[in-house]
Fold:
Amino acid sequence: MRAILMKRVFRNANDNEIYMHINEIQDRIIEEMSARDDLTDKYKYIIDMAKELAMPGEQLRSEENLIKGCQSSVWIKAECKDDKISLWGDSDSLITKGMIALLIRIFNNQPAEQIMRADLYFIHEAGLSAHLSPSRADGLAAIINHIKTSVEDTLNT
Amino acid sequence: MNEQLQNISTNELYERLEDPEIKIVDVRPVDAYNGWKLHNEVRGGHIKGARNISAKWMNYIEWIEIIESKEIKPEHTLIVYGYEEEQTVKIARQFLRAGYPNVRVYNGFIDEWSPNTNLPIEYLPNYRQSVPPGWLHDLLLQKRVPGYSNNKFVLCHAHYQNRADYEKGHIPGAIDIDTNLLESSKTWDRRSPDELKKVFESLGISHDTTVILYGRFSHPNNDDPFPGSSAGQLAAFRCAFIMMYAGVKDVRVLNGGMQSWLDEGYETTTEEGGKHPAGDFGVPIPSRPEFAVDLPEAKEMLKADDGNLVCMRSWPEYIGEVSGYNYIAKKGRIPGAVFADCGSDAYHMENYRNLDHTTREYHEIEKAWAKVGITPDKHNAFYCGTGWRGSEAFFNAYLMGWPRISVFDGGWFAWSADESNPYETGIPKR
Structure:
């Protein structure tokens, strides 16, 4: 089960992202989203991200990993090994899951300190912040906050 | 894509109103759908059976999910109508792009459907009490506005012990109102008549003042010490209920709160709004005592056939996973209460709001409530932990014109404080 949790199933083109800096991955995402002018295409891009996210094990969907304050159920788990963070996430809302997938792309296998300091400019520059409903923006803020707090907790354990 | 969109005539639309293959989509603003004549249409409201998918929401990346949530499927024929043909056609084309292949455009709402009283229109009975931002903007500019013939109003920016929320920017002319002025910070119930009278008079509110309330939604987080301080629009509904109970005749809420104001592109100000103490409140408080239910009456209602205690808490609270509040220890639910699911937690009302915090389409609320026996022929007392979510639900029922509505003010807080009161936990057995 742990082996299944550890596997990131993204397209081959993104596998080298585990060696890239947070901002390099953000820039790549900005490029990918900017290539899609239409909002429906941006939506489909995010849904595709959701579908490509690794299937989590059932133990991810625990009360401990559940984020409160989101309309849909959201689970996030962070672990630290050799100063690098492994991140898992899931949601029963496809678009929220897609946003989580983007955050995992950016943060997975990154140093904890960099995650905690990260400025997630891609949300604005990829044109997402202009198109998130207030409720969705609220949920996304809660998820990012939770990721950073979880990462910080891994440093304290 | 250059799809040819077909129009539909008024006659054909009328013939097909009951056709289950048809889904009529009203893309006008939520407030127009509710009844406001934003383009001076002869009759306000929407074509009977229409669903509201406001053009504003096309700007949201999750627009497709909004359509799906309205149970509109690709096999349906969508009839799209709005105020302006050009915008309506643009939206209709987006439906085609989104995978809905059968879309037709109806251009006759303003000139044909609205003026013809033989053609059915529905509207939210008390829509005037849920005001659009444009209406408020005009009122503040001292323009004549529809549905208002008073000569005095007070605009209130509601918050819970968060004056900074007001100071960082509020609607011009607003005064701030801390919910602590109207509810006790020991019991969280409405304050005594004498206390309320003093507060209203100090704020310049008499029974015949029109009061308009709004708040700012600022991402309430259950892990904060005071999440209520970020749930300003909920605070506004709480104040609205207490004012109505006390006897303020004309209480209105800005639909969507501060979010709606900002979405329209209107400015806020940091300039302090003046409080102008009024004379006597003018009627005994409470003038509408039936709007509030306390513990003894709540217990009677649980036994009555024609009454419902309506639980406006979240599912985790209802099944006793959490109490919902950092100051309530006991977890569980009141046996016999009817569950009406607010959404995620004590400071959110996702199931009763659209994604922009405007009030959810009232037909959807009616339908969800009817499924669990919450119907207008009964006396419905809405409650939650301490009365905020209960107040928002109460206001929704008020907008729908329901005659016998109350807030069970003490809620789970009061019920759970008495050890002799029964309670349940776990997933209810069917």
In short: The domain at 6-123 of chain B is CATH 3.40.250.10 (Oxidized Rhodanese; domain 1). Chain B touches chain A through 30 residues (CB under 8 Å). DSSP finds 15 helices and 17 strands in chain B. Chain B has a mean pLDDT of 95.
